[in-house]
Amino acid sequence: MNAGSALAPLLSIRGLQTQFQTQLGLVKAVDGVDIDVEPGECLGVVGESGSGKSVTFASVLGLVRSPGRIAAGSIRFDGRELVGLGRGEMRRIRGKEIAITLQDALTSLNPSLTVGAQILETLREHDAGRGARALAEQALEIMALVGIPAPATRLAQYPHEFSGGMRQRIMLAIALACRPRLLIADEPTSALDVTIQAQVLDLLASLRRELGMTVVLITHDLGVVAQYCDRVLVMYAGQVVEAGPTRRVIADPGHPYTRGLIASIPKLADPDFRIRPIDGNVPELVDLPDECRFLGRCPLAISACRTRIDMRDLGAGRQARCIRARERQ
Amino acid sequence: MTAPGTPLVEARQVDKTYDTRKGLFGRLIVRRDYLVHALNSVSFGIARGETLGLIGESGCGKSTLARVVLRLQPPTAGQVLFEGEDITAASAERMKALRRRMQIIFQDPYASLNPRQTVEQIVGLPLRIHQRATRRQARDEVAAMLERVGLKTLHLNRFPHQFSGGQRQRIGIARALIVKPEFVVCDEPVSALDVSIQAQILHLLQDLRRDFALTFLFIGHNLSVVGYVSDRMAVMYLGEIVEIGAARGILTAPAHPYTQSLLAAVPRLDGGDDKPRARPRGDPASPLRPPPGCRFHPRCPHVMPVCRSEAPRPVALAANETHTVSCHLYRKP
Asked: Which residues lie across from A214 on neighbouring strands?
């Protein structure tokens, strides 16, 4: 809800509920998530395991499988409702309009097909009318775009013949093959070494500028968000707990969870900084009461937190799901 | 007693190569590169009570070094000393006695605990091996240790799958510390954990280190985490230590071009200065075929002709004698 923005959001998620029926009970993996992604922005989505960040965007792409289902909510892409779309219609959007890259490039790529075949597969799916030669040339172009040296030779090779960083570039190449308007990058560099991570993220940033793409970067690393994203959403236990411009959120977090996360990370620039961990664990997402999810771990908790807490506007494009957020401003 | 100033743990020019040929047929097939050069002339000492951080990227030999230091694997050449005693040639009986004093905490709390054993059995096993404790004695000690690492007595009869990742890592820590070791290798102990849980475990390790007067070799790939816990740090690249010195010095004034690029590559919370930063080019070379000369030279932004042919020797920095770096840029004329 960026009040000052004149443009309609490219992606608008409202009241999303994605649930999994398990033996232990109903798991509300995503519980009432509202997200707007503005055209051209790079939005960072931060959260720990089980925060719902990946499931939220799997829901956007219609990738939630049984026993999971979207129980409620709306997902609009460029004004078009995606919830309830048929498989065929979703396939036309997926890859062409919205693409995703996954964390683990080795298990996400098909080991028995050459890299070229996998890029062509995507191109053919959406550009069936074009000749083989034109498609092959386009594949070459994309390989060069993502910075793979000797693309002609590399196209004929299999995923295992590439290093981790190169495989992540191939994932990007496949995702970008049809020039999607929205790229969802789900932990694109978490499996990579830090020097390779920097190369891949730099590439992603420059591609975004060149292609005018909108990017959602899902990560557990606040540092990555600080470096590459204009705006950040912090998720916790299936809910968005804080949203705002990255620098402001990091400099002056509104939600106690965000504050706790930042205090948990050792600072390279300040060797005297002592970390202050958040006590306790993330709650089980089964049969949660309707109250603040962070209650059990929060240093600011009061009895008024034992009720349903909504996002509150903090001004300057910032929001937090905390009744005491304003006190700490 | 050993002489004062003797490090508790010392590695002297340790080499480790692995033969990748399998079976008789593997040996008969002639191949050029079948030796993995995992460690090459690695030397360092860790003083009693000190934490030495060991940082490096995947495949640089960090975990091999951990295994060789604990003699879980014999080195191919060189020596490992514990309290001045060469343990590379120690007998099995002698090693068993020493093993009580050196323990390890593993990276993956899911893979390093036996899923069929209760917490009591897992944490109690070292006691039963090293102190021949009875079940009852062991139980009391295990319960006390669980409390110490932030678990409860009621957890004694539970199985690993009933715990979260952070709690499992606490079990692994309890198992390592139950025999009151002096030296503990922490092999990426927080890498598999979420940020908030990582901070809890780092805090716990710091407390335990102080309370039990532990000496740590702390291995990791996250510079801010390793820098946070270490007194001194060693930076590894392709099986070699390229730089070693006080953690503060390495983090604030890194000397080796590899360390510099590692530091520059870490995404900073403050967003950095937006300037395009120098990145090392390409990927690390394979340890099957390490480059000649300096092993970092194909990726180094400061590469000189000498780097391609001659391996640099460690030199102490002029500004700080305890900070050494293996790089031709710092060669004394």
From this structure: A182
